[in-house]
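Table S2 (continued). Query chain:
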Amino acid sequence: MERPLADLLVLDLTRALAGPIAGRLLSDLGATVVKVEPPDGDLTRTTKPRQDSMAVYFVQANVGKQCVSIDLGHPEGRDLLLHMATKADIVLENYRPGVMDRLGIGYDALAAVNPRIILGSVSGYGHGNVWSHRGAFAAAVQAETGLTADIARRRRADPRNDPASQADVYGGLHALAAILAAVHHRDRTGEGQAVEVDMAEATLVANDMTAINLRNDSEVTDGFRSGSNWPPCYQLADGRWVTVTADPAVRGSFRLLAKAMDRLDLIDDPRFATMADRLENADELLAIVSGWVAGFESAADLEAAIGFSSILVADVRTADEIRNTDWAADRGAFVDVPLKQGGRPVTVPQAPWRFSKSPSGAVPSVGFRGEHNRQVLSRLFDVTQDEIDRLEASEVISDRLPDWKREQG
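Corresponding output:
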């Protein structure tokens, strides 16, 4: 059985995270994805930790891709990319707006050699507006779009950056959806097109509290109010942490917890009479619930004691801990990507979808910069070995392989 996107060829010019995520997902769905890097490589190749000279961070976002390295600032590098575009279905890029045109490989140039091509662009704030020129790391976009402030409000603390690059991930996921829509449009009409996605709007859409926050309504109501609820974490008897999906400040959750604790007296306690009171005296209320939770040995025991189906208790796990669960093994939630023969593999998360009639998921391979220059250019794009030799000699294409890879290879 073929993978869903087995007939698509993608040129992935992206670096860092938002673009590479979209490229990886296209690969997971079966597309042939050729990662085109400049001579200095994807900046995430320099991150740590490393395994057998490969950055682990890079592996997760680029697993399954074939890697070539082309100097697009060189006229022959531009011409080579345009030649490759004649056979490609999709070009994916996340340069700042305008850079592709300055390189001579913007949509007009691509469409001139391949009218069916789809150019997928990911940027921080979109093309053709007053913020288009701005750079876009996830922390900056999250700060600008209200996510950082929202998290601070819920934590009742000063703003601080989230270690997860959410804006990048949201941008990459929305880029995947937009590109697949453009492919569908082309299949219906025969027309290629340019489609651009920005991280800022993707983050606004992904934040389920954006519409609530736009009301600028600080009124506290005595019931469930999206955005005011924050399920706390507690420690069990052995010190392990769990989260309980019930904010004790909310009336319904407060009453259910009081009943489960056999502390109905709390309902009449003036400190906890209203939601505003419970928020005002949150530390005292949490101390009471924490003391009760500390008497349980497991999340399952605590959930059973609460006894209400919509209130869940979950262990606070590390990624390594969930990898070692029966669920992860049964689901196949992680993939080992081998590097050095006989060496320790890099483990990455598997794609979350499963098709009833098509295989999918990460192809467990990853390339060093320029590792696949020869095989990709000759096999996919009909470049002769003599021409590849000439391009190497003029440094239009290059590679950077560790010694062990050259010896192994």
